[in-house]
Amino acid sequence: MIPLLIISAYLLGSIPTAVWIGKAFFSIDVREFGSGNAGATNTFRVLGKSAGIPVLIIDILKGTAAVSLSYFSGFEAGSTAFINVQLVLGVAALLGHIFPVFAGFRGGKGVATILGIVICILPAASALSLVVFLLVLFSSRIVSLSSMLAGVAFPFILHLVLHNANQVLTIFSIVVAVLLLITHRKNIGRLLRREESRVRLFSSQK
């Protein structure tokens, strides 16, 4: 049963929301423009909020839906085994988003999907990380920097603020932080060169 759930989680994560919406409604593959990623941020940048908002919401829901498959695992909710299954399914969905089978294995960076995953598994930690994201975003107007700092803050929030004692969750939080840095390595280069684009908050877009 568990292998089937893992495959299902990967396939959910593999739904290339940005690619499909871009092609269906705008005849554009967002991966050919902007940052070249099939994620919500690039969709906002290339196609505007009319496409970006649905992509953001669906990508978050992909993560929550994949983790929710754990309720079919047969383990008691809240048990160590149940949490472990949640983590495995979350990682499978994230890999699906980054390497989607339905879009030639060229996906996004996984920020929205990670949010959907951690909302299910660690709601308090995800809420505090979201606060970090918003504070950095409003002060810098740089989405990539906000995402990375929120990701790096995640394990510290979990361990130092929420006093997590589950080592598996601690390892998961560190993996999330490292993975966000890896998927944003090109952004890090642009940040160091001061070439990273800034978003226009509260401005009108398509």
Summarize the structure.
The protein has one domain (about 1-190). About 70% of the residues lie in helices and about 0% in strands.
Radius of gyration: 17 Å
Largest sheet: none
Number of domains: 1
Average pLDDT score: 91
> Which regions are unreliable across 5 or more consecutive residues at pLDDT < 50?
none
Could you give the count of β-strands?
0
Strand and helix order: HHHHHHHHHH
Percent of residues in β-strands: under 5%
Tell me the helix content. Answer: 55-70%
The separation of the N and C termini measures 44 Å
- Structural class, judged by helices and strands? mainly alpha
Gross geometry: globular
Helix count equals 10
Descriptive keywords:
206 residues, mainly alpha, globular, 10 helices, single chain
Commentary on this structure:
This protein is an all-alpha fold and 206 residues long. The protein has one domain (2-192). Helix content is 69%, strand content 0%. It has ten helices and no strands. It has helices spanning 2-13, 17-26, 40-47, 49-68, 80-98, 111-121, 123-140, 143-161, 167-183, 185-192. It is globular. The termini are far apart.
